[in-house]
Design brief:
This protein starts with a helix and ends in an 8-residue tail after the last strand. Helix 6 runs antiparallel to helix 7. It is 65% helix and 2% strand. The radius of gyration is 33 Å and the shape is rod-shaped. It contains twelve helices and two strands. The chain has a two-stranded antiparallel sheet with strand order 1-2. The chain is mostly helical.
Length: 261
């Protein structure tokens, strides 16, 4: 006859596990002997080993009793069910591992490769980290809502960086990120931006392209990110509106007579 500690040692489990199995009714609890101790026989060791083996195989303890007393057909069906569940869990864990591995890559955790390449190019062109971080956060929002359109957006952004005039405009915008709302340089930046917008508008014969726009609700969210992050944002938007343009993510022309000279 074995003590609870000896039973646990033979079965390769802890005394705590034995007591847990007693509490859940998974392992029969013997009567105490005259000395007040529980004593176990070889049958209890075998039963506990079977319980441990099923648990080690990934069978939930709630199903162990079912398998212990199942006939061959029911046991096979239950094992197949457990196997399917484990395979699904393995796939999910593998997905988690892939995501964790991407953490080391920074931006690629939440952005497609073309967006990461765009951000890297901004770094290479000398844009400040705060500006790049703002771009990253905005594109994370877009990628989450419009993943299929990201290749188009990133192609468009890359083409803009290839254009010296647009790149100069980008640098103007990046410079404003730390300006306060009363900075006297803001009107000149607004003039520069409006001149570019008017040039694009005229080049399209007055037909404003909608291909690069995002849905209105997403545009409002992206605009709020800009307004919250850049102290001069509201002043700049007001200057643009005074010059015939509204919005930020989706810039739209509101007047046909405004021209910057």
């Amino acid at each position: 006859m074995l003590t609870i500690g000896e039973l646990a040692a033979y079965a390769g489990v802890t005394v705590r596990a034995v007591r847990h199995h007693h509490a859940t009714g998974l392992l029969a609890e013997p009567e105490r002997d005259a000395s007040g101790y529980r004593r176990y026989d070889a049958g209890a060791v075998v039963e506990l080993i079977r319980i441990r083996t099923l648990a080690d195989a990934g069978v939930p303890l709630a199903r162990v009793r079912e398998l212990l007393f199942a006939d061959d057909e029911a046991f096979a069906a239950a094992v197949e069910d457990v196997s399917r569940r484990l395979r699904a869990e393995i796939r999910e864990r593998q997905r988690h591992l892939r995501l964790v591995a991407q953490l080391a890559a920074g931006d690629s955790l939440a952005l497609p490769a073309e967006a990461v390449a765009y951000l890297e190019r901004l770094h290479e062109l000398g844009f400040a980290e705060r500006f790049v971080a703002g771009e990253r956060d905005a594109w994370i929002l877009v990628a989450a809502q419009l993943p299929d359109q990201m290749p188009f957006y990133m192609t468009m952004k890359s083409q803009q960086l290839d254009d010296p005039a647009t790149l100069e405009l980008y640098r103007d915008m990046a410079a404003t990120i730390d300006w306060d709302a009363t900075d006297p340089r803001l009107p000149a930046v607004a003039d520069h931006l409006v001149a570019a917008l008017e040039g694009w508008y005229d080049a399209s014969d007055g037909a404003e392209s909608t291909s690069g726009r995002v849905p209105r609700d997403l545009a409002a969210l992206l605009d709020s990110v800009f307004l919250d992050a850049v102290p001069a944002a509201r002043t700049l938007l007001a200057l643009l509106q005074a010059r015939g343009w509204t919005g930020w993510t989706n810039l739209e022309r509101t007047a046909t007579t405004s021209r910057v000279t």
